[in-house]
Amino acid sequence: MNIQDEEHLSAISDCVLDLRENNVFVPTDKSLGTADSGKYHKFHKSAYLVVDTNFILSHLAILEDLENLSHDKYAGCYQIVIPKQVIHELDGLKDSDKSVLTSRHSISKLARSAIDWCYAHFHESVPTVTGQRLHERIDVDATKDDSILDCCLYFQNVENGGGNFVVLMSDDKNLCVKALVNNVLTVSYRTGMDAELIASNIVNELQLLNSVIANEPCILEAINYAINSTYGDDVYMIEYDESKMKTLRDAGKCILRLGFSTFADFFDRRNVYNPMQILKDRTEFRKFTNVPPSKKDLDEFVEFWKLFLEAIYKSRNVEQKNALKAIEDYWARSMRSTD
After folding, report:
1. Most buried of 123, 170, 237, 290, CB within 10 angstroms?
2. What's the structural domain count of the chain?
């Protein structure tokens, strides 16, 4: 079922909000009784679609189509995640006597359909629909919509090493604002929206993410080269551990910690581009060490690391410079694909 009438959608959102705000039902984890979704294959960097209660109640047909597409046209590209809080709320709504303008759209019927759908998919051997497990949390004290946001942040920053592409599917404007503030993209239903439109946009964004991730090793290697060029056999004195350099966030922290004294041979303090100075700003640090959420951010992200690599590579041999040129060409193609 996919409910499109705005009055119906608003009524469903109000019912969920009433449950969430007034604690009509707050079950414990022991009372949840959902099936363990089992082991599933984790792709290197995946997209996770985190579903809010109002969305699964109103647009179950879209979620079913998304699930089908994840086995076919977009196999392995994304996974649908049902937060613990959502399962709690569905459990609390399944016996509700509230209706949404028509008996066909009664809250209890919608909730039971959603629970049945989750239950069926949680039992698949390699599910593309999975429930949030108890350990998959950052803030264990988060409640209500903050708990759903926490689920998003866990799958964005922790699951499979972090740096994942997460989309919150919700018709709750307040929750969507909270998500956007935390660099989590959102999808809210609009007339004419279908699973193909959602999936194709997500896959395009995922390709962008993977183009960024694919070039992380080059950036990390460039930092390692600069450090070893500066310190040689004395590198142990700065407590630098190459094995701990795994992500762009690690790279940013390393650049900040070692500062200009380490990278003086590659950057001029007088130049406008000074990565050590730029990364001191927390907003800029997040911008250049996380996946760009928009085309504008992507342009700035690529320009920042392009200038960094060019400075490090200027004293390297022709073969290495050609390798850098290939990387820059790859970035350029990725940027054109988002236009």
Report:
1. 170
2. 2
Q: Which of 331, 310, 334, 335 is nearest to 320 (CA)?
A: 310
Which of 203, 227, 258 terminates a domain? The answer is 203
One-character DSSP codes across 247-280: SHHHHHHHHHHHHHHHHTTT--TTSS--HHHHTT
The residue among 178 and 163 whose pLDDT is bigger is: 178
Packing angle of the helix pair 248-263, 216-231 (nearest 10 deg)? 30
Distance CA 81, CA 165 (A): 13
Of 189, 63, 183, 213, whose CA–CA distance to 128 is shortest?
63
Domain-ending residue, one of 203, 227, 256? 203
Residue-level pLDDT at 103: 52
Q: Nearest Cα to 164, choosing from 194, 133, 208?
A: 208
In which domain, by residue range, is 98 found?
6-203
CB 40 within 8 A of CB 169: no
Q: How far is CA 247 from CA 171, 216, 220, in A?
A: 33, 7, 8
pLDDT for res 126: 72
In this predicted model, what pLDDT tens digit does every residue of 14-66 receive, in sequence order?
A: 555 655 555 533 333 433 333 333 332 333 567 999 999 999 999 999 999 99
Which residue, 25, 4, 45, is CA-closest to 211? Answer: 45
Q: Using a pLDDT cut of 70, give the percent of the chain over it.
A: 79
